[in-house]
Amino acid sequence: MEIHEECGVFGVMSPVPFRAAEMCYYGLYALQHRGQESCGITVNDDGVFVSHKDLGTVSEVFSKNILASFPAATMAVAHTRYGTTGGTNRNNCQPIEVNHKKGRMAVAHNGNLSNAAKLRSALELTGAIFHTSSDTEIIAYIVTKERLGAPSIEEALSRAMDTLEGAYSLVLMSPQKLICARDPHGFRPLCYGKTDKGVYVVASESCALKAVGAEFIRDIEPGEILIFSGDGMISRREHCGKAEKKICIFEYIYFSRPDSVIDGRSVHKARIAAGRVLAQTHPVDADIVIGVPDSGLDAALGYSRESGIPYDTGLVKNKYIGRTFIAPQDRLDQVSIKLSADEDVVRGKRIVLIDDSIVRGTTSGRIVSLLRDAGAKQIHMRVSAPPFLYPCFYGTDIDSQKNLIACRHSIPEIAELIGVDSLGFLPVESLGILCGGTHYCRSCFDGVYPTEVPADNGKGRFEQRLSEKNGKSG
User: Fold this and answer.
1) Residue 5 carries which DSSP code?
2) Cβ 211 vs Cβ 30: under 8 Å
3) Closest alpha carbon to 55 in 89, 79, 28, 26
4) Contacts of 50 (CB under 8 A, 6+ apart)
5) In CATH, which of 3.60.20.10, 3.30.70.1400, 3.40.190.120, 3.90.190.20 is domain 7-246?
6) For 371-411, what is each residue's pLDDT tens digit?
7) Class at the top of the CATH hierarchy for domain 262-446
8) What is the pLDDT of residues 201-224, one digit of tens each?
9) Would you name the residues annotated as active-site residues?
10) Runs of H (alpha helix) within 195-253
C-alpha cells in the first residue's frame, strides 16, 4: 500500500478548565493512522493560546514533560498530518495560528482545496504573505479577511465557505468558541460527542471519541457549521444541501480505522462487504485466504466467509516501525522489514491474498515475493478497490497518473509484473455496497469529478514559490 491521506483533526471544549492537552494527546493517538509526518496541539487558556507542534508521530513530539507544560484550559485543537499539499517541514505543522485585529484563531484542517492555487494567487495579489505551502493557511487567510467585516467568527467562516471548493473538515478555535465545519460535499469525515463530564469532543473519526471516553452523538453533516461556546451548541446549516454528498469511498477501503463509523456506516462492515463481493466476482480454488495488514484483513475475512475458504494469518506486521525508522535505500527492502510471511501457514498452499489497493505495484510485488520465498504454491491476489486510473484533488495522495500501474498496463499484465497467478479488482459498480448508498466520490477510479478540475493541484505546487520567496528574503 502506497496511498496516504492528509490528516486527522481533533478538538475539545469543556465548561471548566481541565487538562485539555492530555485529552488531545490521546485523541491524536487514536487518529495516528491518518498521518505520521507531524502533529500539534494548541490550547486556549482564557484567551491565551499555548502551542506545541513538530515533525514526528504523537509519541515523538509530545513527551510527558511537554504535556505537563500546557496549562489547564477550556478549549483545545489538535492535528496529525500527512501532507498532500505542501512538503514535510515545520512550517506546515498544524494547528495554524493567526493573530489579527479581531483576535486570535487556531485552525486544524483535513482535506484538500481544489481551487487552492486560484485562491492563493488572488490573496498574494492583495499583499498576503504566506509562510507555509499548505491549503490550511489559505483557509486561515480567507476566514481572517472575512472576520474583519463579519459580526462573528462563525459568520466569517460561513462567508469563507462561499469561496472554498473541494474537501475540508475543519476545527477552528477563537478565544471564546470552538467551531467545526464540513464542506458541502462531505468528502472527509467529521463527528462529535460528549463525555460524562460535559466535555464536547470533535474528531475526524468516531474511534477518537471512544479513546477519550466521549459518547458519539452524530456526524457533522456536509455543509454544516457547529459552534460550541459558553452558551451551548448552535448548528448553522445555510451551506447544507448546496452540493451532492460525496464522501470519499477510500475512507471505507483504507483510510479510516475499522472500529470507526463514518456517516452511519461501520468501516469494518464495509470492508467485510468488499471481501464478499470479491469472492462473488473473482472466485478461485484455494486453500487459505490471508490479508495484507492492516486494512486488507477485514476484506480477507469477508472473502473467506463468502467463499468458504479458511481464513488464516499468513503475513505478520512489525508494529513498532514508526517515523524514525531509518529506511534502507532500496525501497523494496522496506517491505521485508515491515512484513514477514509465516512459513508454517503458507508453505505448499494455494493462497488468496487480499490487499486494499495496487498503486505502483512495487510493494505488491515484494509482498508476493515474500510469500513465494515462504513456499506458497499459488498466489491469487484480490484487491478491495478498483484500479486507480485518475488523480485525486480532495486529499488522497495521488496527484498524477504517471506512477499508476493501471494506467500503463492491463490487469493480466499487472498480474505478471507483480508475480501472481491471477488478479482481480473490486468492480467500480460495487463500490456503493461499502458505504450503503450512491452518494460517494470515486473520481480516482472513474475520472468523474464533483468539482471543477484544477490546472495545478500537485502535492508540491506551492513549494517552489515559497522557497524562491525565502531565498530572495535572504
Assistant:
1) B
2) yes
3) 89
4) 42, 43, 70, 71, 73
5) 3.60.20.10
6) 999 999 999 999 999 999 999 999 887 777 888 999 999 99
7) alpha beta
8) 999 999 999 999 999 999 999 999
9) 7
10) 206-211, 250
